[in-house]
Design a protein that fits this description.
The protein is α/β, with parallel strands linked by helices and 247 residues long. The protein contains 9 helices and 9 strands.
């Protein structure tokens, strides 16, 4: 793998998607073994309108969360490589993932922007009470298929951005600033189909950064990338991080 493009890089932004976590046993969404490939109607469960209006959609979501492989997953070599790189280089991870694995790999939480929120916490949509998702799942495992807020009886929702919701303006604004200030944007394990996260690549390129795409399948941004790497993320990213460290 040619890594000559690592020369002169000082500020690194990493846009990570579901593909970076598949080696941890968490399936992606649109791949051959993806969640929505196996269940084409699954995306409707995480559509905010359906979630709010249809109790059966909420029951499906909480049942899925209760059995999610995320709770037993551990960071993999790609997560650990980024955490190690951040010890010697200016790195910011702008992640579309909600699994928290990058932080668990040792990367300072201040260096991670969770664009789509986190599945580890939940909130009441009526009174705003926040709690650990684990506390909600205890009730699900206890037989409550659609647990309501213990404070006011309102709808509980994981703190994730669903289809039909806007990203937090402050979070996406910070991400855009970081992408625009980077010398290199690594897009890792993401189809670059979901906006506005994917547009961070355009911001980086327009401000003169190098864009490197590390993904199994083609993306809409391959044509403007400095390099496109199809190697498995678990081997490619540690090699890239080693090259950046050496520079």
């Amino acid at each position: 793998m040619d890594t000559s493009w690592t020369q002169g890089v000082r500020r690194i932004a990493v846009l990570s998607g579901a593909g970076i976590s598949t080696d941890s046993g968490i399936p992606d969404y649109r791949g051959p073994s993806g969640v929505w490939t196996a269940d084409p109607d699954g995306a409707d469960v995480v559509t905010i309108e359906s979630f709010l209006q249809l109790p059966d959609r909420r029951r499906r979501l909480w049942a899925g969360y209760a059995n999610s492989p995320v709770w037993q997953a551990n960071p993999n070599a790609a997560h650990r490589a980024l955490a190690e790189l951040a010890r010697t280089r200016a790195v910011r991870v702008l992640t579309q993932n909600i699994d928290g694995l990058q932080q668990r790999a040792g990367l300072d939480r201040r260096k991670v922007l969770e664009l789509h929120g986190s599945m580890w916490t939940s909130s009441c949509l009526d009174c705003g009470t926040g709690l650990a998702t684990a506390a909600v799942l205890e009730r699900v495992h206890g037989g409550e298929s659609d647990p309501a807020c213990a404070e006011c009886g309102g709808i509980l929702k994981p703190d994730v951005v669903m289809f039909g919701q806007h990203l937090d303006p402050q979070v996406i604004g910070q991400a855009q600033t970081m992408a625009g200030a980077s010398d290199l944007l690594l897009a890792v394990g993401t189809t670059l189909l979901v906006e506005p996260a994917a547009s961070l690549c355009a911001i980086a390129v327009e401000t003169g950064a190098r864009l490197v795409v590390v993904n199994r399948d083609p993306t809409p941004y391959d044509a403007v990338a400095t390099a496109v790497i199809r190697e498995p993320i678990g081997t490619a990213l540690p090699r890239i991080c080693a090259a950046l460290t050496a520079r």
